[in-house]
């Protein structure tokens, strides 16, 4: 698995975990929002390089 | 209208008037991405809240949606995908073989326009997100006309971009959905989790009590029971499964079992996403503004952009825009195919741009999005019975003693049996709804069955020996 793909999956994990950590009062809402935005940008940047080559 | 016509590929070959060759067949993964993306869409941000405005109970919502979506998946798998992998033709070309060119032209026009209106609702939803940085006034539930110049400019810009993407063909649409869908589903889930925290949910009992035994519907809405939820969720995509519109999609499938991939769209989009959106709206209606509107006898607005932004910030806004795109793209593409059946000399790219322009104009009018439950029920009711013609012709023509694909074999342009079956079944069941006050989705299946049966009966009497 390439490093780009690992980064993509980590981004999805961040999108999944951020709201859960907010729900558990580990993150504030603004921290969660920043994490979600960062993960979103990196997901689109990295996933577009490999996701359709596998389909 | 969108701005200047963009530079688009001169020719995108989509096998519009021939069976898809085996070299172009696609595996189930291609459909999984498309369906997950298409049904976890911008309109889910509207539909979820509209269930709440209809006063549904927890059981009706959770169990009713589960059952309705299961029936939809079974319809796709055992009706649409089964026929599609047998004939491998677009809906429009298959219909032309049965109905004749002149009759199918009228159907294609109606179909294409309805698809454009649906895509227009998705553009409207995206506009509620894109408009936030411009301090755009959001449309109210009762709005029908554009509410200002900012709204118009935002909708035109979104429509232009969506149309260009759709015009590049099925592959581009599929690729876009593949990238967006896993992320988009998780953002929907994030919205739901954040809403749960805002609603003070700490246990399943708390979650259940958000909806409880249901409540009176909001002003101007009707009360939804268990069966309203089951049948509405089954038939909200009736045009695509029992209406056979997705013949055009599944003709590319290697096997009919690819029809199961629609479950990704149903249970992620029409279950998880609807419930998450419902929770977002449940949180919103606890605010002072919403309570004041309810006290004044008005329904609080359903504005997906601001709701998602409040929950998860800018990522939520991007999700609303992208979710609108992933649904509008294949819808405009389907509309383009419908128009192409009318004007086969035009390239797929060019007719898709025309469909995109019509959808953009429709998106200017918020009525399509704000009355989405009603519009979707009507849209399914009108188009679904035509799918029965294809299904009954495919499976029962031999046993009924009629000629399959009669218009093609008889060399006629107008098959009267089809028009009579469609017109009579529509007239009877729509009258029952309009004059008897019966919920329209309750009548979609009876109309579909009667259309198919009437087609066989009329064909038996009207077909001539070939």
Automatic annotation (TrEMBL), chain A:
Superkingdom to which the source organism belongs = Bacteria
Query: Which spans are transmembrane here?
Result: 34-51
Q: Which UniProt keywords apply?
A: Membrane, Transmembrane, Transmembrane helix
Question: Which named protein is this?
Answer: Uncharacterized protein
TrEMBL record, chain B:
Keywords assigned: Membrane, Transmembrane, Transmembrane helix
Keyword set includes Transmembrane: yes
TM regions (residue ranges): 61-85, 106-129, 149-170, 182-205, 225-243, 264-287, 307-328, 349-370, 376-398, 410-432, 438-458
- What is the name of this protein? Membrane protein
Which domain of life, per UniProt?
A: Bacteria
Q: Name one GO molecular function term.
A: cytosine transmembrane transporter activity
Q: Which organism is it from?
A: Persicitalea jodogahamensis
Looking up InterPro entries in the UniProt record yields: CodB (IPR030191)
| Cellular component terms per the entry's GO annotation | plasma membrane
